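During data preparation, a discrete fold description was generated, and the record follows.
___
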Amino acid sequence: MATPVIAFDIYGTLIDPHGLVEELEQLIGERAREFSRRWRDKQLEYTFRRGLMRQYEDFSICTRQALDYCDTLLGTHLSEADKQRLLQRYASLPAFADVEAGLAALQQAGMRMVAFSNGTAAGVNGLLEQAGIRDRFSDIISVDEIGRYKPDPAVYQHCLARAGTSAEACWLVSANPFDILGAAAVNMPTAWVRRDPAVVFDPWGTRPDASVEQLTDLINVVQHHG
């Protein structure tokens, strides 16, 4: 059997989208965690809306507009300079603590890994570089290349074409249930990284092929699946 390709989601799976909470606390105090959560939720909502409307704008636009929305909603009155500083820091969000060891184990086992993200290739490349994990990936595949967003089936087909593999031979690894469901819809095997025990998987009648709490557990899943 051919060695599988592993397509990793980035935001929320390898990179912590709430890595700016401390900086937000300096700006808005005790509402920082609420702001961060709402910012992430609205960012994703905007990608879903744009996908349905076929009015694509890249991920950085969705991120900026979601920031503006939350600032207005919560009445936090961030200055333009504050917003620009937050957006600049968003480009250097930290990786989760288990990422380096988990990716190293997979690479040592001979797995081919690609980064597969709603973010632009340049944005993802910068995140992976600053986290010291860019060399773990053979390629960066961005939805920006076709102007669609996850979980559009065309996005997963694009990933497979770029990776030169079949759906059955390409794992999708993500902490985002909507991403898992999107990949499963095109018959990719899936592994859900449950970063937050409070997150509930959508009751759609489809479950991930595997669920892990730490990325270091993924090697056993991939090697022993099927």
In short: The longest strand covers residues 112-117.
